[in-house]
Amino acid sequence: MIDIQVPNSVLRDPKRFGGITQGDMRRGRPVLRDGRIVALTPPQGGAAHVVLPKLVEAHCHLDKCHTQHRLSPTGGDLPHAIAQQRADKANWTESDLRTRAARGLAEAQAASCHLIRSHVDWGDAAAPPLAWSVLGELAQDHPGLQRAALTGVLQWTDARFAATVARQLEADKGVLGAFVYDQPGFAQGLRAIFDAAVRHALPLDFHVDEGLGDMNGLEVIADTAIATGYDRPILCGHAVSLMDRADADLARIIDKLLAARIHICALPTTNLYLQGRTDGTPDRRGLTRLRELHAGGVPIIIGSDNVADAFCPTGAHDPMAALSLAGLAAHLDPPLGRWLTAITTHAAAALGHAPAYIDTAPLAAMSVYDAPTLADVIAGRAAPVPATQVFT
Questions:
Q1: Domain at 55-350, CATH from 3.40.30.10, 3.40.50.11740, 1.25.40.10, 3.20.20.140
Q2: How far apart are CA 135 and CA 92, in angstroms?
Q3: Pairing between strand 262-266 and 234-238?
Q4: Strand, coil or helix: 264
Q5: Which residues face 65 on adjacent strands?
Q6: Quick one: which of 70, 110, 62, 119 has its CA closest to 90?
Q7: Over the stretch 42-78, which tens digit does the pLDDT of each residue have?
Q8: Distance between CA 377 and CA 50 in Å, rounded?
Q9: Which DSSP string corresponds to 113-150?
Q10: How far apart are CA 143 and CA 226, in angstroms?
């Protein structure tokens, strides 16, 4: 048996778990009972492996991933990336989609992801796109895979589109998603989305305010959630324009996010690559206000977003890598354990799942890292190993 160390942030009751305190970690020799780590006894000395819940990939795009190599020269802002990726859809055959999406899933699982939400471009028609069906087939072998329909917010003002797509999502246990980018009349589209989500019991996931500048879709989403009494999980990705809001505006919006129980998902790879572009080196961070949201009590999530496509030429299906990048870009200072919830417990809750805490979850929900510190884990210096292989 080995000594282990566990961040307090991923324990339901750190004080009762035992062991010794070491910074923001508990360290000791694990006590196993019925396939669980129920407590720690004092450590026996030597290196202590880090034990964490399996990770959650709360926001990625398996229909787009690994297409960068066949695109014309890329390197532009968000509208340029959208146009580049739209042109590539001519190559999206069933075989092409299955091969690329399966590769992305394999990468995420190698990074210890057990829950994965992939957005799927819906297109102009109400009928589901080919990628929706392909990912649905892959989900049969990957039960932790969720599909979110990425639609245009204004499409939902068409009653026929709204009814058809909502029924499809309900039948497929999908997520209703939309792209909100300060389009004229977007508030009407949001109201139609919430009405459909309430009627068909659908969770919601928005791409919102994906840019620096004067955009306020996030606040309107919160206002609509409060007005409709919507009570299912809402995840809002990007929210980059919060960087340009005055302190008083930010405080007001945070209060509304708390009232609406909205999770915010930062997506550092794509936003840092696309936002704040100039003719030279960018001097602004394309990232939401992670520190202020966290301080205000809003649950923050961090996702991988785009991987090797028109929106990000590199990237990885690895939430730990995304957390590492966000830490550098947003100055997420130590103690580092407090930020782990963004890719574990808070992320699971945002996807509608019960969080897996080390002192309550089965070993199958955990990974072990042969690393001396949590910083080494976040930096990628140790690969995850299933806890069931270590504690046998």
A1: 3.20.20.140
A2: 13
A3: parallel
A4: strand
A5: none
A6: 70
A7: 999 888 999 999 999 999 999 999 999 999 876 789 9
A8: 8
A9: EEEEEEEEE--SSSSPPHHHHHHHHHHTT-TTEEEEEE
A10: 32
Closest alpha carbon to 243 in 274, 212, 283, 278: 212
Rounded Cα distance between 56 and 78, Å, is 26
CA 239 centroid distance within chain: 13
Q: CB burial class (10 A; 0-12, 13-18, 19+) of residue 385?
A: middle
Residue 100 near residue 309, CB atoms below 8 Å: no
Provide the residue ranges of all domains of the chain, joining segments of one domain with +.
3-53+356-390, 55-350
Does residue 368 sit in helix, strand or coil?
Answer: strand
Amino acid code (one letter) for 314: T
Pairing between strand 175-180 and 145-152? Answer: parallel
Beta-carbon contacts of 295 under 8 Å, excluding residues fewer than 6 positions away, are none
Largest CA distance in the chain: 66
Beta bridge partners of 175: 148
- Reply yes or no: is the peptide bond before residue 335 cis, omega within 30 of 0: yes
Question: Residue 159: which of 187, 123, 186, 195 has the closest Cα?
Answer: 195
Radius of gyration of the chain measured on its C-alpha atoms: 21
Other C-beta atoms closer than 10 Å to the C-beta of 266 total 28
* Token reading at 83: 């146009």
What tens digit of pLDDT does each residue of 148-195 get?
Answer: 999 999 999 999 999 999 999 999 999 999 999 999 999 999 999 999
Whole-angstrom distance between the N-terminal and C-terminal Cα of the chain? 9
Could you count the other beta carbons within 10 Å of the beta carbon of residue 112? Answer: 23
